[in-house]
């Protein structure tokens, strides 16, 4: 390079720089060179050279101008044929220029420009790829398979590309199958659903919606399906989708009870059908006949479900309801909807012992329950005489400690003491302590030689009054200890850890 | 008492941010956007308000929609026009809009959403306050809340950085996790660069461990919850506690200094602690004797307020203790606990069964009876057919026939089931029992059931060593392991699983347990960006209970944390206990 050339270059470079600031050079045509983005034009080379002679010159505007010029050069190429001036280009903005390129299907160039200008993917490359794909799907001569594959190959997982939009376009061109294929690539299953619904692929939409985990979406599809399919088909579809089914059931439970029944009927789900009728018997029906009828239907359903237990229980309930109704008519008061236990209790409290007995027999109330029930009821009435009679009617299946307990609960020590003697040996100490007879409790415990009982009594010994008893226990303990050492036997019984 | 944390235990993340966030959002929503000036509770009775605009802040439930519809329609009938606004929290459901539409008021109301899902109840406890989650998911199979859980996790990870290690077990845990991951992928960029603050997250379904939730609680906080019901972190102490004629609403959290020291303690220690505390307090009061004026001035201005506050709290908790004692001794609480322990350990099944039967016969409490039946069923892999029938019959006779529906619910949820018939043993057994007396039959049944297939719970319990061997008495003052929350009789299964997985940093070696939990495909580990996590954050663990957790579990894990130098943070769909679980399954007459 000779000096003259250098001089010229510097001069033109400086002029170019001046142009940058004065807004001149860039506005005109910049020579004929540069049919590729990659080749710098002569004057920018000069500018680059000239820049070296300027201090404190910010490089940004230089870089930007170079980029713009390259873009302009590229689109001016005769293959493209968009001769723009710089100011036209600035007016137009890069986005619009890209749109124009896209409209002319110059996708590769558009993408090159985006990459060169480092536009964010969402505005740049992805957008163009999406446009490309939308164009691609209109090529009717290419098979669905090939188009879908080609699109996926190019697009991959590019962020910001919505496969569902492309699929929508494909559907718009009447290529439903292609649309479905494309939707397969959509990572957000939620996005697939609206289009699938539009394409009347509701069942597929349903499984996609379920996949998305968005119950609202599932519900949208369900209501769509409900209107689209006949009832039978709708139910069949639900049957294969447990998640959707339970969702729809939840809805029906509040809004469409009849549909719920049909659903169970369809599935031959007699168990749930039975439960449904039971619920119905409590919910709406006021009249007893209606309720019993509902229960009868329920019992039938339970039999069909081979749930003998529920069926029998339901039948019992029907019997009880009728009986309660009769009791209300004959005796007055409220019986309806009491449990069996409470019904009998109410009878005893009302003094209808005979009826109570009858009821207990009819419904085969177990002895133990009956005893607890009578015991509690009679104590509530404070009918001590009857209670005593009852206690002697036969051997108590629940022992006699409960008698002591219940009398003490009513603060009747006198009555309580009557029963202590009949309490079995295992619970005797406890009973004696309950009525406050520490001394006798100690005697029994010593007799039993039971360490646990001894300490229980000891813990009840208070202050001076029980001093003698406490000593007695200690002595007995010591004696037992000695005996044990002599016999070298296992200790009687270790202290249970009474803790909770 | 109130063991300190190890010095190297990590700091808890700051949840006050969540609180502020929620408060600001709510204020903005109510005051600025909707100009609300008066608040009413949504109840069954109609709201009395003459205002021109009504704004409902509700959970997206069909029941609530009905309530609103009735109100709007009543206004319409009365010829009144108002503006109605419905704000759904945490999100709007399409089904709700459907209901509004069907009731013909969709055009009259406008809808909005408030995506609020995390309520910090305490420094280490976040609650989603979704008690309905349990029934909706575990009984009805409704997955609507999973999205909410995923959103909540997403919010946590944007606030506190990504979680390098994730573990989980259960179907719901897996679904929530996958949905959450999807959310993160869709919206990535935000959390990627952040340093993780919380090193581990553990998701656990409630149905992995029903047993723990069904046990009576004996740790103070749990016991208060069982007895008085803690709602949203506060409790209503009735007149019997406050020893006045008024009820008092008390916030129970780490800020209550007295409560903070006893909350995790076994109840048997609490009284002793409180009386010691009372003596100390008295001593501090007494110091003022012999003070000169200046000292006195100091005392009054600086210490007296604190002492008074402490005094007030102390007397409240003493009152609560007394009230608990009174209630618990009345119902033979010890017997009950003994039965529970027997069930957990699996001995004297026959005796426990008759205890439960007596419990039912005496109509002690419908919920309690149900709880014991479920406990028996789960620990024994279902009841033997004979007991299944007889206990249910007894129950229906005692508490009303509508519970037939309750039983059907419990069976569906796997809480109360019948042992699979097919067992040849039971056939033999029923033949034998016809020949001999009742008592002997019981013994034979016992013998057979010990021969029969051991229940999953028993096998798990053995594998994980849930029933600690006790040599001598378990010292509840100085707990040795997490079993202390159940008087040393049982280590909570859920907590043990968490402990084991954290120790191994995976599910490796726990295959058998996972299989027994019927979760072969539902246990997962995901270790990602470990390298970025500081050692401190790796000792911070977020445990997510889907379907609720109990205070006992929280106490047990707090204990584990203190032992190992971890800190646990809890996220639960709601704080629960045995009674709440049972009530969620019960059907009551409408």
UniProtKB/TrEMBL annotation, chain A:
It comes from the Eukaryota. It holds the Pfam family Vps16_C. GO terms for cellular component: early endosome; late endosome membrane; lysosomal membrane; vesicle tethering complex. Its main location: membrane. GO terms for biological process: intracellular protein transport; vacuole organization. Gene3D superfamilies: Vps16, C-terminal region. Residues 479-500 are annotated as: Disordered. Residues 161-479 form the Vps16 C-terminal domain. It is found in: Late endosome membrane; Lysosome membrane. It is a peripheral membrane protein. Core component of at least two putative endosomal tethering complexes, the homotypic fusion and vacuole protein sorting (HOPS) complex and the class C core vacuole/endosome tethering (CORVET) complex. Their common core is composed of the class C Vps proteins VPS11, VPS16, VPS18 and VPS33A, which in HOPS further associates with VPS39 and VPS41 and in CORVET with VPS8 and TGFBRAP1. Interacts with RAB5C. Interacts with STX17, MON1B. Associates with adapter protein complex 3 (AP-3) and clathrin:AP-3 complexes. Belongs to the VPS16 family. This is Vacuolar protein sorting-associated protein 16 homolog.
UniProtKB/TrEMBL annotation, chain B:
Coiled coil: none annotated. It is a peripheral membrane protein. Its main location: cytoplasm. It is found in: Cytoplasmic vesicle, Clathrin-coated vesicle; Late endosome membrane; Lysosome membrane. It holds the Pfam family Sec1. GO terms for cellular component: clathrin-coated vesicle; late endosome membrane; lysosomal membrane. One of its GO terms (biological process) is vesicle-mediated transport. It comes from the Eukaryota. Keywords: Protein transport, Transport. The keyword Cell membrane does not apply. Transmembrane segments: none annotated. Belongs to the STXBP/unc-18/SEC1 family. This is VPS33B late endosome and lysosome associated. It comes from Equus caballus. The lineage of its organism: Eukaryota, Metazoa, Chordata, Craniata, Vertebrata.
